[in-house]
Each structure stands twice: as structure tokens, then as C-alpha cells.
Amino acid sequence: MSSRGLALAPPAKNVVLYRNGDPFFHGRKFVVNQRQFLTFEALLNEVTKSIHAPLAVRNLYTPRHGHRIAELGDLQDGCQYVAAGFEKFKRLNYLSHGRKELCGTSNSNGVQHCVHGSCRNTGSWHALDCFYCSVFRNGDLLSPPFQLLLSKSTPLQWDTLLAMLTAKAGLRSGAVNKLCRLDGTQVFGGEELVNGSYYVAVGTEEYKKLPYFELLVPQNSACRTLWYV
Fold first, then answer.
1. What pLDDT, in 10s, does the model give residues 44-101?
2. Per-residue pLDDT tens for 104-147?
3. Domain residues of the chain, as ranges?
4. Which CATH class is domain 13-84?
5. Do the beta carbons of residue 120 and residue 213 sit within 8 Å?
6. What is the distance between the alpha carbons of residues 109 and 167, in angstroms, rounded to a whole number?
7. Rounded Cα–Cα distance for residues 185 and 205 (Å)
8. Residue 138's closest CA among 203, 90, 60?
9. How is domain 130-215 classified at the architecture level of CATH?
10. Residue 66 — left, alpha, or beta (φ > 0 → left; ψ -120 to 50 → alpha)?
11. What is the mean pLDDT of residues 14-42?
12. Residues forming a β-bridge with 132
């Protein structure tokens, strides 16, 4: 290639990509250059693999307003985008590293929902008298664990927790029938749950012993040390 051709080559762009609708994914950095990605589709295929998307990534959106990115030339250096499949763009505070808790009031069974994205907020959970744990989906090594925030002050109804897990997990086998520790032993009641621990939601199938924590919790996450009990 001539020196003039090198001069005309588009410069590489550094971007950060988030998973659509995932408040716990902190983003993945990509360097987009013409040598590596000749087409927009090639970039989308690489993004699918790199962020472990549950479905193939087919669209990129701006994080604040959800404007669709149509081609490589639309990407701006130093900007953030949201990777999605064919589903609609989901509005979240993607750009906040320590995503805010959005805790609802406890219902009659003492269950509260919380959406967050950083273990830096642990102190505020204690102030709210909340109980926190992370849950993997049985046999699923593509989806990160989802989080549950429960009230400490109100007795926990186990059937209610299983119903909540069913709604959040979306298991292919259907309802969540049991909750297991990472070693496969079953949890039979709320009093057995350990604050900050990881569990696996299981349906009618057998528990599948897989490296959930090792593959789905980021290596550089401080939460690996804090929550792996």
C-alpha cells in the first residue's frame, strides 16, 4: 500500500460496548479498525462472542437515547454503545459504573427488588437492612448471574422466593423448583442463605455442576473476593 493509502486509512476507534438490558455488565472495550473489521457485520459477530451475548448481536445503540448505529462509520472514538439482538433497546443507566440501587418497597412477604451493578454499594445495602445474593441459571454459561435483594426485617417466604426466581431466571425448563449452592447441595429455606453468596436456580432437571463462577464473574472484579463464600 502506498504512503498516501496509509494516510487515508480511517483511524482506529476505541469504544465501550454494553449488553442490552443488563444492569450488571460493566462494559467491554473494543478497538475498531478497518484492518480487523471490514464490515459492520464482522464487528457484530465479534461483539457477540466477546460479551457472551445470549443471542447474536445485530444492532448497536447509543446508550442515552437509543439511536441505532447503522454502519462502522457512525461509531465515534471514545464513545459507548449498547449491543442488542433484534429486541428493542432497553433504557438503563449504562454509563454509571456503580449503578444505583432501585429498591422497591417490600411486599407482604418481605421481598424487595434491587437493580445495581457494583459491589461498592455494599454499605448502602446494610443501611437499607437488605440481604443480597447472586444467582446463576442451571446449565447456562452465557448469562451472567442475576441479583436479588431481600429484606432482612421481614420473614422470608420460601415459596415467594422461588416464584421470584422463576420470573427472573427465565429457565427453559420452566419454574425454578430448587436453589443450589455452587457445589450442588440444595438450599431448603431462607435461613440457609448466606449474605453475598452465589447460588444456582434449578428447574425440574438435575443440577449441572459447571464452572459458573470462574466463567461468568469477571477476573478483575473485586466482587470475586467479596462474594465468593
1. 999 998 888 878 999 999 988 899 998 998 898 888 999 999 889 988 888 764 333 3
2. 333 433 333 333 333 334 444 443 456 778 899 999 988 888 88
3. 13-84, 130-215
4. alpha beta
5. no
6. 16
7. 14
8. 203
9. Roll (3.10)
10. left
11. 87
12. 149
Q: Which residues are within 8 A (CB) of 179 and not within 5 positions of it... i.e. 6 or more apart?
A: 135, 161, 162, 165, 186, 187, 199, 200, 201, 202
Q: For the chain, state the CA radius of gyration.
A: 20
| Distance set, CA 223 to CA 69, 119, 217 (Å) | 33, 6, 8
Q: Which of 27, 221, 29, 19 is nearest to 134 (CA)?
A: 221
Same fold across 13-84 and 130-215: yes
Cα-based distances in Å from 92 to 8, 66, 97: 37, 10, 12
Map the chain to HEC letters: CCHHHHHHCCCCEEEEEEECCCCCCCCEEEEECCCCCCCHHHHHHHHHHHCCCCCCCCEEECCCCCCEECCHHHCCCCCEEEEECCCCCCCCCCCCCCCCCCCCCCCCCCEECCCCCCHHHHHHHHHCCEEEEEEEECCCCCCCCEEEEEECCCCCCHHHHHHHHHHHHCCCCCCCCEEEECCCCEECCHHHCCCCCEEEEECCCCCCCCCHHHHHCCCCCCHHHHHCC
Model confidence pTM above 0.90: no
Assigned C-alpha cell, 140? 447456562
